[in-house]
Specification:
- The protein is α+β, with helices and mostly antiparallel strands.
- It folds into three domains: about 5-120, no CATH class; about 140-315, Jelly Rolls (Sandwich), CATH 2.60.120.1440; about 320-390, Phage tail protein beta-alpha-beta fold.
- Helix content is about 20%, strand content about 35%.
- The chain has helices spanning about 10-25, 30-40, 45-60, 65-80, 125-130, 310-315, 330-340, 365-370, and strands at about 100-110, 110-120, 140, 140-145, 150, 160, 165, 170-175, 185-190, 195-200, 205-210, 210-215, 225-235, 245-250, 250-265, 270-285, 285-290, 295, 305, 320-330, 345, 355-360, 380-385, 390.
- The strands form four sheets. The protein has a 17-stranded mixed β-sheet that branches.
- Strand 23 and strand 24 form a beta hairpin.
- The longest helix has 15 residues, at about 45-60.
- About 30% of the residues are buried.
């Protein structure tokens, strides 16, 4: 048994580590292999196993495999599993080790397994390049009114900005005061690398992702409440039967029936995705139920409904996560451009069938995100001074 594994307290974890080391040694028997999977499926074993795998890498030279060899090991591990129809729980634990990179591979249908290994040759090992890194986005937006007044929320002081508008450290609020004079239209815009939270006059909450906007009245009057959005927003509607809430996104109209939903309608994305979190919402004559998602193909106008949508994926940005599930490099880089305010240049084409899965907090520097992708021979050069990322061979 590997010495680095002897510190495990529980017998189950000790046995699991022993079996994994036997697998790496190619000495595991068929019975032991079946036992390995059975132990792995008991609770969050991988969460406990990950630090010990890092120790194994650091202390045991015989396990310092080349990248290609690790790939072979993990593909073999997936292929050799004795019970392919039994699902493995999804584990998504990401730890921050110095000079460590995430390795992700599927162990069974729908299952993911995250391990850590030292990166071999990487652009990110260069100290000068790390100093030229790109920081993640932060809160901030521009609030402009139809009377010409404009406020940069990043630098504006907390308190009342103008009549009926207040700001604090976490949000900007429209006050529903009957004493407010004229109704003005306002637009809240988040540039790239910014996000914001807005409280409308009726109590509706709006979260804006980077490179997004919402146009709304300073207070709602008449028979309905109408807002227009671009980019990506999450809206939690304060329901009012007598004054329905309508959201317009690139010509598509959504009508609230007591609702929280997420709309992604970026200009550079091929589809508009609307994911219902709670309540109900009506669009194009279709009423969505919780966990359903409408997908509108912008080039044709055709719409389909996903019955069991991935709500976690749709709302990860709002919850402070960068989450990818079988995403190709082009779609990931579009998100990178918006959240890190960089332009991506391709020196080489990355095939669409090269996909990535995993998650990291949104508050990590760009290098920490990109280094995970180098495991599939996709390399990057970060030019933080010029806000540019180059995808290299």
């Amino acid at each position: 048994m590997v010495q680095g594994f002897r510190s495990i307290v529980s017998y189950g974890m000790e046995r699991l580590h022993f079996l994994f080391s036997r697998y790496l040694d190619n000495s595991i028997t068929q019975t032991e292999f079946a036992e390995f999977w059975q132990l792995l499926e008991q609770g969050n074993r991988l969460q406990e196993l990950t630090p010990e795998l890092q120790k194994l890498w650091d202390t045991e030279p015989q396990y310092r495999l080349a990248d290609s060899e690790w790939d072979k090991k993990f593909k073999q591990l997936k292929a050799e599993r004795l019970s392919p129809h039994r699902r493995v729980p999804v584990y998504k634990y990401v730890y921050r080790y110095a000079a460590a990179a995430v390795i992700l591979f599927a162990v069974a249908t729908g299952g993911y397994f995250l391990v850590f290994k030292k990166s071999s040759q990487s652009n990110f090992a260069n100290t000068a390049l790390l100093q030229n890194d790109v920081k993640p986005g932060t809160s901030g937006a521009i609030l402009s009114f139809s009377n010409g007044k404009t406020f940069v929320l990043d630098t504006a002081r907390n308190g009342q900005l103008t009549e009926g508008v207040t700001k604090n450290d976490t949000s900007v609020s429209m006050n529903n005061s009957t004493e407010q004079s004229a109704v003005l239209y306002a637009t809240l815009t988040t540039p790239r690398a910014k996000k914001e939270h807005l409280l409308l006059a009726d109590g509706t909450e709006v979260w804006l992702n980077a490179a997004s906007s919402i146009r709304f009245p300073s207070k709602f009057t008449g028979s309905e409440r109408v807002v227009e959005i671009t980019g990506e927003v999450d809206i939690k509607v304060a329901h009012n039967d007598k004054m329905p809430f309508k959201t317009i996104a690139r010509g598509q109209v959504f009508e609230d029936i007591g609702t929280e939903f997420n709309i992604s309608a970026y200009d550079d994305e091929p589809v508009i995705r609307t994911t219902l979190l709670e309540g109900a919402i009506k669009t194009n004559g279709v009423v969505l139920q919780p966990s359903e998602q409408s997908v509108l193909i912008r080039s044709t106008g055709a719409m389909r409904v996903v019955k069991d949508a991935d709500v976690e994926l749709a709302t990860a940005w709002k919850n402070g996560q960068q989450l990818f599930k079988q995403a190709n490099i082009a779609s990931i880089m579009r998100q990178v451009e918006r959240w890190y305010d960089v332009d991506v240049v391709y020196e080489t084409k990355v095939p669409d069938d090269v996909t990535f899965s995993g998650d990291l907090p949104r508050n990590v520097n760009l290098s920490e995100l990109l280094k995970a992708f180098e495991r599939k021979n996709v390399h990057f050069i970060i030019d933080g001074n010029n806000k540019k990322v180059t995808v290299t061979p």
